[in-house]
Design goal:
alpha/beta; six-stranded mixed beta sheet; three-stranded antiparallel beta sheet; 22% strand; binds adenosine-5'-diphosphate
Length: 258
């Protein structure tokens, strides 16, 4: 596992230089530097309120930065990079009366909704079916979205983000709505997708054991990047204390537990 390259290069998926963001005069990101090389699964950890979601929103062009620079695939105009990015939110709050099936919901991503309810679209259908099969949830195709469990819904959101074949996947605490027995297989799934599709992944996660197991590189954020490195380098008591403060128990990795 190698550390991210720090040389600016047009193919580097994510380069964040000295980015600052403030809300109502309160500095949330205070000069963040963050580089993600191609094809790596990079974890972003840090306590609540440390700016993780804000940083992802900056990458998606949803949050204006006060200063600094962000380049995605060497491109400063983030809108141009958006088609190459998939995003999986923490959760999608749905009303029980939301009527779309999984198939109809996924079709929205492909902009093929015109006459969707009246015509069959062979190409769209097969892409949707293949994507669901790829992540092991093909039987959900015709299920109403609003009736899925937390874990099933998150898998559909992953399918939603993969439909357009992104190169960079941003996952913001994707197991927030998943019950704990399902969390491990969910992370295994993300790691397997990343490997099979040669994706670059930024994973925001609180689950330090999963981060330890699956991330090639870890960034600990608390307004600034407090520490970064391989999981072995970052996830020790001293570094975690720097990121999380004194109230958080240090992570202990048990080498024999798998
Ligand atoms: P994390 O994802 O690490 O929990 P966030 O990026 O969500 O942290 O939030 C960082 C801080 O910025 C929090 O104190 C939060 O209240 C604040 N914040 C985030 N978005 C906004 C906003 N749109 N307006 C005002 N404050 C915000």
């Amino acid at each position: 596992m190698s550390a991210p390259c720090c040389n600016a290069h047009s193919t580097v998926p994510v380069e964040v230089r000295d980015v600052r963001v403030s809300f109502d005069g309160q500095a949330v990101l205070r000069g963040v530097n963050f580089t993600v090389p191609h094809g790596q699964l990079v974890a972003l950890i840090g306590p609540n309120g440390s700016g993780k979601t804000t940083l992802l929103r900056c990458l998606l062009g949803l949050q204006k930065i006060s200063s600094g620079e962000i380049k995605l695939f060497g491109e400063s105009d983030l809108k141009k990079a958006l088609p190459r990015i998939g995003y999986v939110p923490q959760r999608l709050p749905l009303d029980r009366s939301f009527i779309l099936s999984v198939r109809e919901f996924l079709a929205l991503r492909l902009h093929k909704t015109h006459n969707w309810f009246w015509q069959s679209h062979k190409k769209t259908d097969s892409l949707i079916c293949d994507t669901l099969a790829d992540i092991g949830v093909a039987p959900l195709l015709n299920r109403p979205l609003a009736q899925l469990s937390g874990g099933q819904l998150q898998r559909v959101l992953i399918a939603f983000s993969l439909l357009t074949k992104p190169e960079l996947l941003l996952l913001d605490e994707p197991t927030a709505g998943v019950d704990s027995p399902g969390e491990e297989s969910f992370y295994e799934l993300i790691a397997s997708i990343q490997r099979r599709h040669h994706l670059t992944v930024i994973l925001v996660s609180h689950d330090l054991s999963m981060v330890y197991r699956h991330a090639a590189h870890v960034y600990a954020l608390n307004g600034v990047i407090c520490c970064e490195g391989t999981p072995e380098q970052v996830m020790n008591a001293e570094s975690l204390k720097q990121a999380y403060g004194i109230h958080v128990a240090p992570y202990e990795h048990h080498h024999h537990v798998h």
